[in-house]
Amino acid sequence: MSNSLSKLLHYLTFLKKHRKKLYNESNKYWALRNALDEHSIETYFQPILCLRTGQTLGFEILNRPVNINAFTNTEEFYDFVGKSGEVFSIETFIRRLSFKRIADQANAEPFYNQKMIFINVHPQVLADPSYRTGETLEILTNYNFKPEQIVLELTEKEAVTDYAQFVKVIQHYKQQGFRIALDDAGTGYNSLKTILYVKPDFIKLDKSLIRGIHSQITQQHLVRLLLDYAHNSGTKVIAEGIETNDELIYLQKAGVHIGQGYHLGKPLPTLLNGSLPQYGLQNVSLLKTKLKTVNRR
Ligand SMILES: [Ca+2]
Ligand SMILES: [Ca+2]
Which residue range or ranges hold the EAL domain (predicted)? Predict the structure, then answer.
């Protein structure tokens, strides 16, 4: 067999093997391009609650293209944006859109106007030296939000390469009044390093740490470790992806401050407070009594 024929056969085998993957990737790419061209992004708001009182403290803004066939969820969309090579322009576009959409609702309803707004930010964007740090502030002023209401959620799925620049930009944001959350903690490249350098206001525990936590000792140890750190450094811990009552009750008992997940409130296109299911609330009062008994010993 000639060399070129053998190469062709190799290529065809490769194509066959990766056809589905390539098809999915190109589907995502066009969904992304299309979404930005037509401004056809859907925005959802998921409530974030105090696990002690049940009060809704704020909302995480979640975006994804209307073409849901290409992306199964917001996270997948967001990961794809990170790898697209166009993260900078897409992020700016989505950030403006997010603030506009939440402002449309929050400004009409003073009750929601004071809530915290959690937005997802790719660390690469902040680490880029050409990033204009004043831009977000300008957008906020246009929509009557204060920087203190805004929590920038930084995920670490893509490793940060220029750490010094990254930390410098974060300090700049903090000085402007913004708050910082480390997103998906427990899954990233350098979670502990980032926690130490960035000193976030919030640590968001990834859903993989929360799933079944009531019966998973290793997950419990890691969560307790982060809670200890948080307790000593004035950081608040947010448990993401709470889906069952068992998980909720465990987290309440462990002293996790804040929670988010389908069990407390689904992402919706309109702003709607979440709630602790009644059983969870009853357990908090039971728990308080139990804790008092334990403390007295
Ligand atoms: Ca997030
Ligand atoms: Ca997350």
Answer: 25-281
